[in-house]
Structures are given as C-alpha cells and as structure tokens.
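I am going through a labmate's work and have reached the protein record below. What it holds is a sequence and that sequence's fold in token form. Please read both lines and tell me whether the tokens look consistent with the sequence. Do not assume that whoever made the record got everything right. Thanks in advance; the entry in question is below.
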Amino acid sequence: MKQLKAFFAAVVMMTMSSTVMAQTTVKGVLMDETLGESEPFATVRVFKAGKKDKPVAMFLTKEDGQFSQEVKGKGNFDIVFSSVGKEDLQKSVTLENSGELDLGTLYMKENATMLKGVEVIAQKPLVKMDVDKMSYNVAEDEDSKSNTVLDMLRKVPMVTVDGQDNISVNGSSSFKVYVDGMPNAMFSSNPSMVFKSMPATAVKNIEVLTNPGAKYDAEGATGVLNIVMNKMDPQAAQSMNGYNGTIRLNGGNRQLGAGAFLSGQQGKLSYSTNVMTSYVTPGNTTTETRQIQDNGASQIQTTENDVKVPVTMGSLTLGYQIDDKSVLNLTAQVNTLTMKSKGTALTLMGGYGNDFSFGGTTDMKNSRASFSGSLDYQHFFNKEHTQSLALTYQLDYSPATTEMTYNFGTTSEFIDLTNRYSNNEDKTTNHIFQVDYTMPLGTGQTLSFGSKLQFHDATSDAKYYLKDVYDPSSSSEYEYKNTILAGYGEYATNFNKIGFKAGLRYEHTWQDVAYRLGNGENFKKDYGCLVPTTSLQYNLGMGSNLGLTYNMRISRPGITYLNPYVDKTDPIALTYGNPELDVEKNHNISLVYNMFTAKLMINLNLHHNFVDNAISQYSFYDTNNLLNNTYGNVVKRHQTGLSGYVNYLLAKDTRIFFNGGLNYTDLRSDALAQSNNGWTANAMVGLQQTLPLDIKLSLFAITSTKSYTLQGWTGGFNLLSTSLSKSLLKDKLNLSVSGSLGLNKNGNINIDTESRGKNFTSYTIAKVPISGVTFTVSYTFGNSKMRANQHVNRVQDDFIEQQSQGELLNSVGGGSTTGNGTTTMP
C-alpha cells in the first residue's frame, strides 16, 4: 500500500514538475486596424482559460508593436490586449510543450462606444521613449492645431530653442536635420526660420536620435533631428480605400500663412501631398555692440534690421504595394525661402587720434531653394517582415543666392568707407546610392549591413563690387567635390529583460577643391573614419527601462569653414575660412531612464560628451586694426548634463509638462591660450486644460540662464506662450488663437553677449521682438478614418551646413562679427 502511494505521489510530482517547467515564448505584432500602424505600449495580460481574476503574466508591447514574453505552464490560456481608445482584443491559445508560439500580426479596433457613467483617465503616449531614440507625437498634441513646428520643438525632450530661435540637441547646435529620414539642404541650413514658417499640423512626429546607430551617417555630433511629415504608407491595409485632407489659414502680427494636405489610398496605390506658404515678419531687431581694444581704440555700433521671410514648401509621396512582400516608393520635395533684410547702422570710433562716426544702410537678400527626390524599392523575404533588402537612389539639388549692399554717407582717412556690393551664387548637387540588408539570426537576434556611395558637387561664384565696379581681386570662384564611400554592420538582440545593440561604420572621404578665381589654392585630401556605436538596455518592469549608450560622431568642415576667401563687406572686419581644418570626432556617453504609465511619462538623460579638436570660430585684431574672424580645430570641449521630461495627466481634463536640462561646459584652447566654463539651465513648464464648452487651453513659461562659449557667454531669456482652441462640426473645423510675450520691455526679450579675445573685449545687447498673436482656422475633410503614416527614407546626406536664425540676423546689420563663441560646425 505504501509503495502504491509512493508511486502515485511520484506521478503527481512529475506532472506538477512538467507543468512548472513547461515554458513557451509567445510573440507577435500588435497593429491599429484603422491606421495600419503599430500599437505601442499596449498592455498584454495572460490568464488561465476562464479565470480573469489574476493574470499569470503581464507585459507591454514595444514601440513598434512587437511583443515576446515567456509564459509558464501548460493548457488553455486567454491573452487580452488593452490600449487607450481601443476595444480589448482577446486571443485564446493552447500551450503544450516548451518552445515558441507566433501569433503573427494582430489588429485592434477603435472603441467607438462611449460608456455612460464611466470615466477613464488615461493618455495616449505623446512621447515614445527608447534608450537611443525618442519620438514626440505632434499629431496627438492639441497645441499642434495652432502652433508652428518651432513652437512644438520647445516641448521635445533633449531639444532646446533659445531666445533667438537657435535650436540645440543635448546642449549642442552640432546636429543633423532630416525630413522623413531624408536630408534637405534648406531645412538644415536654417532650421529655425523654416520651422517657424511651418504649421505643426503638417508634421506627425518629431524624432530625436541621440544614438542613431551604424545605419545612419556618422555626421552630426549630438545626433539626428528627424521631422516626420504626414504621409501614407503603401503597406497599410488596402481595405482603407479613401482620402483625407486638411486646409489651413493663419494670420497675425508676425506671420501670414496657408496650407493644404491631402492623402489617400486606392488599392495598391497610396499618395500624399503637402503644400504650404508663409510670410514671416519677425520685426525690427536692434543691436548695440561696445568693443574696446587693449590699445585704447573703441567702437560703439548700433544697428536696426527689419526682416521679412516668404517661404513656400511642397511635397509629394507615392507608394505602390507590388505584392505582400514588395513595395516601391517615390518622394519629391520642393522648398523656397527668401530672407530680405533692410537695416541701418551707426558706428562711433574712438582712439584713432580724432574720434569720428559714420553711418550706413544695408540691404540683404538671401534666396534659397532645394529639390529632393528619392526612389526606393524594398523587398521582404518572409511573412514576418524580419528579412529585407532595400535599394535607394536619391537626388538633391540646392541653389542659393546672397546679395549684400553697403552704402555709407561719408568718408574716412582711417578706414575704407567705399560703397560696396557682393553677389554670391552657390549650387550643390548630390547623387546618393544605398543598399541595406536585414536578416534574423535567431529568436530576438537581428543582423543588418549595407553600404552607401555619395557624390557631392558644390560650386560657388562670389562677385565683389566697389562703387559698382567689379573687383576681381576680392572675388572668388571655386568647385568643391566630395566622394564618400561607406559600409556598416550592426547586431541587435533581446534576451529576457536585456536588449543589446552594437555596430561599426567606416566612411572614407575624398575631397577635391579647385579655385578658378580668388586667393585660394587647389587642394586634395582624403581620410577615413571608423565609427563605433553601442547601447545596452535593461527592462526594470512594465513600462520602465534603463539604458547605457556610447557612440562616436563626426563633424566634417564644410566649404564655408574651409574657403580662404576673405570677405571684406564689413569695413571694420574681415571673415575667412581655413583650408587646414580637420574632422571633429565627438564621443558621447548617456545613461537613460524611461518610465511610462497611463498617466505619467518620465525621461531622464544623464550624458557626457567630449571632443579634443572642436572647430571654433575665433577673432583677433591685425596690424591694420581690422577684426579678423576665422576658424580652427582649437578647442577641447567637455560637457556633462542632465535633461528631464515629465508629462503628467493630473486629471481627466488637466495635463502638466516639464521639459528642461542642466549642463556644465568646460572649454579650453591651448592655441588661443583661453578657457571658459560654467553652468547652463533651461526649463519649459506648461499646463494644458480643457475648459467648459470643450475649449482647450495651453499655457507655458520658458526660461533659460546664460550659456558659455570659449570667448565669453550669451545671456538667458524669459517668455510666456499660450493658446486657445475649439473644435466644431464633429472636430472637422478647428478655430484657435495663440500668442507669445517676452518678459522684457515692450514684450521683447533682451539677449546679452560678452566676448573676450586676445586683445579686445566686446559686449552686445540685442532686443528681439517676440510678442505676437496668431489666429488659425483649419478644416478637415475625407471619407476614411485613416491617418497618414510616414515613409522613412534610409538615405542620409553628409554635407549639410547649418546656420541659425540668430546668426543670419546678426550678420545683416552692418555690425562686425565679434567671434563670440565656439560655433562648432554642424
């Protein structure tokens, strides 16, 4: 009898042991049925069949909707998927032996039923966070109906916009700008002015890639800022045949604009088009500069500039789903921008024996245009779409013209006050060919590799006139050719709670510069860069993770920095480049914490970056008492900072924001025998509130302390912004009003700048008008619930030179450039 009991006990123990030991990995992809896009951060609960009181496993889908989770036990189970605004999806499965169960692609439906008497307090994720990437969902933010893209950038984690609309990422202006993963010369040359002219309704997401990985070009010291436009995805469900569109008008004391967006799908063909135009009038900016030299000479210069900027942008995207494994995409984008500035300047000169003064007028016109087009083919080799080959060709063409006129009303025996005029015509053409291949190596493992070939050809013809007479000795004409060949490999894996990605990229550059006219000498140069990148992520629990990343990024000096042509348009200053510049090599280390719940989102990023050969503009006075501005690899820069983002749904109708950072910067230059260091802080605190009659209110306060450069500092600023919006006709018609106010006199913001060169000290105060009110009306139409997805281009361009709005405005008033900072080459 005892033996029989022992036998049954052994059988029971073996059965229980096999049940406990049985473990199955359940995986799949969760999608939004209406939008045809992934469903990120959905809650997944696994129950024993018929027992919904306590789940045996619970987890979240990833940012791309994928999920993979080990479930212990055998038998019948119910898997329930839940997400804000969606109907719960239940899937019944049977788990038998240890192994893997692939549920494939699952689709969730919109919840069209309002439950009376039930109040659900949750938020759609405005921010999708990962260790090396962050995406801000502009389309889901109520403020997008009334704001510009520049306004929205102030909310984006790790991005700051200063009082003169200069943009920085992780405390640095050395980053690259993409539109739908594709570079655009005009966006990158002056992003602040373009984004100020661009309605936020034209954008779906703003992505910040602080560790882009080996697939991306190595260019861009602190990463990539990618603007994802509203576009259709040809791989979306073909049952979504129909169209959607929006028309928009806005007007105010600083801007007039109009735009239209249309997207649709018919069978295998999808299309999207965006057209917008804007006329921006920033107003009169006044600047006063006091400059004192060690030899006793002094200058006091007051300038006033009136700037007007018409902008037009248009884009077209066509996608064709050849079959369930192949897709063809065609994109085209045309942009034009013209910055017109008229200004006056008064200069008082002291220490020249007899003090004297002179006045003058300036007239500047900067016209830029760009055309970008791409054709790419992508083929998937399996139904899971985990193995693919992509072939891409891209063409970029960017002409630009800058005209500058200086007229003086007097003469001087000390400096040349001859009336002068300059006309600079630039043309840039890029041909890019790229191939990318991705393959799975096993469960949770992926290997990607590819190559890129780029042909970059830029020409410049700068003509200089004195008294309307062409002066060939001061003019310049050259051609600047670059060929870049790159190859990369990247490995990624996920194991339980740990994710790991590492890659290596090699880029070789051949430069060939030929001068047809001017004081430059022809030269050729070639060099190679090996760029590593890696990231490690640990999932702390449901909705939270911790990550550590390292990458090396480079910044190539563009022709503006290399060109030895001496610009003499300013009678008291000379500006020229340095053909001996080397490539910057930036090292970035980040510790990232992310947490997301139905009510609270937190992102913390502790980062350190350093570069030992940073390109910096610096200034000095020559023997002729003229200020010289040029560039050199003369700075060692170390920066440590903490950026934080908090988004909390305080109540059903109340949301609060915080986006800010604290950085310590240390700058040293042995070549210039100078150093500087200091703390910089910035913060944006905001409130979004739903008022009676379903009126949406947003209110934000923005503040920043001074920031430090090698030769000095730039002061901080304070401003307020607010908006009210109301939707009518079942959310088809939206009316909104927005405004901003600087907290200095007359609603301005005052920006102070101090510079200390080898033999001079300069102090500048700029009064920037920022107060304004804008009214916006938009109307949405269509016969489908679909929302536009984006086509992400895989091509990047290595040669984008970025110039801030502040730099442009400060350069057109006839004032001397004082070289007041470590303006690193983007």
Remarks:
- The chain has six helices and 43 strands.
